[in-house]
Amino acid sequence: MEHHTENTTTLTHAELKFREHTERAANFIKIDLFRSAREEFKAALQYKPDDEECLRQIKEMNVNISRDRKSVLILVPLVFILILAVCLLNCC
User: Fold this and answer.
1) Domain spans of the chain?
2) Percentage with pLDDT > 90 across the chain
């Protein structure tokens, strides 16, 4: 994990919290945890409610979550059919 050594003493509490949430969101994105990233961006908006980048990222996370949901809805029935076919072949 990276350690940042930049001086943050001039940042306000709100700026520090905003940065904390957006950095955490970026880390979640790196490992495809889009729901967690979306929640961190939403938390960051508490400190900068009109931040365009956070709003854009939330929309992007929603797209990613929707895409993943569709993939699961396609894969689960296919896996079920495959398991059923293997069971039927082994039983007969």
Assistant:
1) 13-91
2) 61
